[in-house]
Amino acid sequence: MIIDTVLAADSAFHKQLATTIASISALDDGASYRVHVLHDGYVAADRARVEESAGERVSVEWLQVPTEWTRGVLLPHWLPAATAHRLFMGDLLPAECSRVLYLDADLVALDSLVPLWGLALDGHAAGAVRDATWPWVGASRGDFAYRALGHPPDLPYFNTGVLLIALEQWRELEIGPRTIALLEQERFANADNTALNITLAADWQRLHPRWNLQEAHLLEAGCLAWVAENSDELTAAIQDPAIVHFNNGSMGKPWDWGCTHPLRERWFELLDRTAWAGWRPRRPSLPARAVSRARGAAGGFLRGARGR
Known about the structure:
9 strands, 34% helix, globular
């Protein structure tokens, strides 16, 4: 069995990309993985270092996204152009790829992906986990103009960090080009996450939250997912996550100083299987910490105001 997996990253995200690949390589599930990396320019030396994370069952193929393809995409200032690279997978992946598993490069796989790969999509273009912060479009605080689009406020809203995609249908429905067109017209606070929710609307299959355990799931208090979803499933996801997504939130990310995420050490264990083994974030200087706190406070305000 070969599982076609898609990752997207720019050259500044090499450690994270390598760690995600290392987590796939560490899976003892008998499957082979073909990892397609969508990028906008990785030098040969960095490619070679990232590829050290891939074991015998993981092959890495590099697909460059032309810079001009993302030139008109409107993204929040803190997000790189690589955020939109996944929207070009239909154009860049081989024609024989009929199903792919897209993974953000800020996550790690901790359990076999074979069961996820085999899930039926029941005619939908994609499968995803509901967003833990915004489980409905009505919770998006204005980022999703659902009334203008004719959608009810309780329309489920998914997180795009993990997507099981029926690529033939994705191509036929022009999901990528339609989403890019939206991003060329409007800058969403939640970037292409919102744009994909607009494009797909109800055309997606809900996946169990263990396939995309997000930071807010771990907070419980104040997390809308505990209102929108089955609490037994959320509890099971926390106790036995298959994919841990270190997405934006108050805990920070493992590669940042001061991260409080309870699973940060799992990320470092997998990092130590890469060419960056032994690397750890350094405590910033006092001036740098003051700037970081100020930026963090501003970012927290913006996330609260915009629902990011």
